Amino acid sequence: MECSKAKVQIDTSTGKLTGEDVSKSTHQLKHLQGIFEDQAAYEAMNPETIVYEVEMHDKETLGTEGGLLFGTSYIYPGKVGKEYFMTKGHFHQKRNRAEYYWGIQGHGVLLFMSETGEVTAEEVLPGSLHYIQGYTAHRLVNIGEDVLAVGACWPSDAGHDYADILERGFSKKVRERNGVPFIE
Ligand code: PAN
Ligand code: ZN
């Protein structure tokens, strides 16, 4: 029997995905209107600045029940005012869908928020594993000096609901205070 080579490769030290059905999305400051609290600092920055990128192995069509999606997110180091660069954050559209995250490179914080607004946080480091239960919004924040690379695997029918977070935000922010990150 022939044994074929895998169609996709992951560089386990960086999270980089290459091969078939790999796509990439880039999130610049101009796409993140309303996400950071300091509007004046936001407007003073170059709108082309890349805040984060997501590489995805999307073999399954979005919305396929029973399938999985796999991705690596890269959040770059930086701040808007006192607030560290972060992802938009979302609930899954199908609220009960869970997800795994794991730290690959860099230093970050993963914020979890319940539907009633309670926030908890876990430190993201190379080798940390994070289980995101259903009904829980999630956001990655880079509190380090280098890129934060985080792996993820989630159901292909989970979907992303950004509207809820855009409207009410996360009830806790990750800001720099006296040179150190603070969750408040
Ligand atoms: C991740 C996120 C990724 C980007 O793949 O989609 O980190 O964050 P936002 O989607 O909040 O912009 C995931 O949680 N997928 O479900
Ligand atoms: Zn998710």
Overview of this protein structure:
The chain is globular. It is mainly beta. It has a 6-stranded antiparallel beta sheet, with no helix packed on it. A 3-stranded antiparallel beta sheet has the order 11-10-13, with no helix packed on it. A two-stranded antiparallel ribbon has the order 1-2. Helices cover 7% and strands 46% of the residues. Zinc ion (ZN) is lined by residues 90, 92, 99, 138, 154.
Strand arrangement, major sheet:
3-4-5-14-9-12
**Given the structure, what is the number of helices?**
2
Which ligands occur here?
5-phospho-D-arabinohydroxamic acid, zinc ion
Query: Radius of gyration over alpha carbons?
Result: 17 Å
Estimated structural class:
mainly beta
Mean pLDDT: 97
Gross morphology is: globular
Q: What does the main sheet amount to?
A: 6 strands, antiparallel
H/E series: EEEHEEEEEEEEEEEEHEE
Sequence stretches where pLDDT stays below 50 over 5 or more residues: none
What fraction, in percent, of the residue positions are helical? under 10%
In what range is the share of β-strand residues?
Answer: over 45%
Q: Note the gap between the termini.
A: 58 Å
Tell me how many strands there are. Answer: 17
Task: Give the helix/strand layout.
Elements: E1 8-10, E2 17-19, E3 22-28, H1 39-44, E4 50-57, E5 68-75, E6 79-80, E7 83-84, E8 91-92, E9 99-105, E10 108-114, E11 119-124, E12 129-132, E13 136-142, E14 148-155, E15 160-161, H2 163-168, E16 174-177, E17 180-183
Antiparallel strand pairs: 1-2, 3-4, 4-5, 5-14, 6-7, 8-15, 9-12, 9-14, 10-11, 10-13, 16-17
The chain binds 5-phospho-D-arabinohydroxamic acid and zinc ion.
Zinc ion binds near residues 92, 99, 138 and 154.
